[in-house]
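During the practical work, I worked with a single protein chain and the tokens that describe its fold, as given directly below.
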Amino acid sequence: MTVRPFGRVVPIHIALLQLVGYSDSGFEMEPATGNARKRAMMAGAHALKRATNADYGYDAAAWRQFLIDAGDEFGYTHPYAYRAVDNAVQAAISDPDVSDALSLLASGDG
């Protein structure tokens, strides 16, 4: 599936982008805010758990590392969109607003 601005993504890309607050609006994903970001993060965590049978909760850095370490198993490192998606994920992990939102969800206060 082609999704702006990332190119041809696989489902695991979408799930991790959602976890870090990207909203899926058809053929485009962009950073969400407010309740839309919270819903995206919750959907992303759920999709990641369902796809991998692993559970890193709302720890985006741990999910990213798990998916990289898994190699081709879940498709995160698939070359179509990996670089663009991974750059966006790393930027989001470094964003204090995203980190705070993930921490709130992890604590149950989200």
